[in-house]
Amino acid sequence: MFRCSGARTAKPIIRKYMTPTADPAPTPAHAPRFRSQRARVVLGAVLGPLLLLAVYIAAFDATWLRPLIQHHIHERSGRRVDFDELHIGLNRELQPTVSLRNLVVQNAPWAAKRPFVRAATLGFTLSWESLRGGPVTLTTLTIVDAELDLERQADGLRNWRLTRPDDRGPGRVRVRSLDARNTNMHVVDQAIGLELDMVATPLASSFSVPAAGPARPELPLTRHIALYGTRDGVAFDGRFAVSELLTFFDTGQPFALRGELRVGQARAHVEGVLTDLAQLARADLDLRVAGPRLAGIGRVFGVRVPAFANAAEASGHVTKEGERWAVRQLRAKLGRSDLAGEAQFDRKPPAEGRALLRAALTGTRLDVADLRAPSSSSSQSTETSAPHATAPPASNVDADIDLKIGAVEGLPLGSLTQVSAHGALRGGRWVVDPAAFVIAGGAASGTLVAETAATPATYALDLRLRGMQIEQLVRAAPSLQPLAGRLDARIAMQSRGDSFASLAGAATGTLHAELLHATISEALDAKLGLDGGRLLRTVFGAGGERTPVTCSALDVRFDAGRGTARRLAFETPQIALSGAGWIDLGGGTLHLLLTPRRKQSALLALDRTLQVSGALKAPKVALISAGAARTGEPCVAGRAQ
């Protein structure tokens, strides 16, 4: 038996520390160290097995699962799968990873004869959420020394669906980012008429697409991607230098690119940074397009671009943040026409309101001839709008556009100068107000309202013209050369249609015009008065004398494209001319009767009426009996405004 000799000595000490006192005993100095050691023990007990599990998973060789995988896929789709090695592990972020070596997957029976996948290495990183069922998210897909064939039919059938080969519904696998090394990819999408071959290789030092913007050292260009393909029959090819990792969805990680796309003789150069390409979460790009057929580039991207006969070029800095697009430093040129400025587009889903486009554009010249479309059949076959192109509904887009152009050329009545206008689009209704310009030395102002949401579109124009110099107008109308002075006019017209012919045939409204401080040649005054004696005197006389116009008025009422002259009057000190008739804008014809009344007696004068009829471009003049004419209302000055 053992006995502790210190037991008797320890009793007083125990009583001392066990006896309650008024003040609590102080905490021993070594207590925090004791608790820290206990926490480390507990933490080690918990994390130890997890670390062992992580090491086991990282070193796990799952190649023995090959027969099960092969049997599962063959039972579902009838396609063969083979690989040499299968590894399952964790990456640095403790996300599950899968890697297969020497993978070969048979293609769908309806697709190309080549394998669906042939890859030396195919690996991917899974999100933990993907293991809970539902859609599968691959945070990173890595393909090395591979050939892929991706095909989708017009009805949605896809060859990359192995376990659900007949499923035409929405996709169940989303790839957030791609790392492709020495990879060839063939893509066919019948739904949008696309066939594409893509080759990804290491970037060679010989890549020589010129840089347009500043270098981005934080995102080095390491890969070369070559593209060859067609969309809706339009052939294209391109070459791009890109960063190592391309992002598509929900990564927030940018990648850099630089290169160009070619469609025939047209070129589109791009340089900058994109984030999540499929979503276009953010963009910061310098763009430049140039060539004779830019509509082809639009078709490749599924965007409607008008086809123009002349070569065009445009450049600008494009940014996108969230749902806001912005274009700055815009420069565009089409033939002899030019445009510059900036624009901003705030896109919104229909349920959240209307999107808004704001733009401020200026130009030194706009030649209407530059806006003509190509006339050859070959151009029509390749430059028409893509049937698969999509655009937001007009009713969901509002706009505010300010436009200033130095000169608009190529119009029938001559050039417009100092053109300025503000256009506002609200709910498919365009209102151009104010609009102002100078034509033939006179000022013009007015408004235009266009209901583009209607089918066909409807238009309303209210235009005032003040002080137009007839001398400048006669260049477009040589028959007016004996007339000089100024012209005032007001046009108030409404119409509907989808072409100029249909608009002309449906025009309804009024036209008022009058001459101010005008004169005519004495010979013309004699002709209008049917005064042969005066006409002979002008032929054999000195000539060159002018006769003032004391009053003039033209009032025409249009209904369904047919205008009836309610007042057609013209007076000089010698004659008073009144008339009536009609003009058919839709048919391009007119029929007017002009009856002169001489204010003085005359020899060799005719008591007849002038009949002007036929085509608008080349009317014929004849003399008929004065009794058959119907005169209009008398001349009243000041009606034009």
Helices and strands in order:
Blueprint: H1 7-18, H2 31-58, E1 60-61, H3 66-77, E2 81-82, E3 85-90, E4 96-105, E5 117-126, E6 136-152, E7 173-175, E8 177-189, E9 194-202, E10 223-231, E11 234-242, E12 246-247, E13 254-263, E14 266-275, E15 282-291, H4 295-300, E16 312-321, E17 324-334, E18 337-346, E19 355-363, E20 366-367, H5 377-383, E21 397-409, E22 416-426, E23 429-439, E24 442-451, E25 458-469, H6 470-473, E26 483-496, H7 500-505, E27 508-521, H8 522-528, H9 532-540, E28 546-548, E29 551-559, E30 562-571, E31 575-584, E32 589-598, E33 608-615, E34 619-625
Helix pairs in contact: 8-9
Q: Key terms for this structure?
A:
disordered N terminus; mainly beta; 9 helices; 34-stranded mixed sheet; 14% helix; 641 residues
Can you offer a commentary on this structure?
Helix content is 14%, strand content 48%. By secondary structure, it is mainly beta. The chain has a 34-stranded mixed sheet that branches. Strand 21 (397-409) and strand 22 form a beta hairpin. Helix 8 runs antiparallel to helix 9 (532-540). The radius of gyration is 41 Å and the shape is elongated.
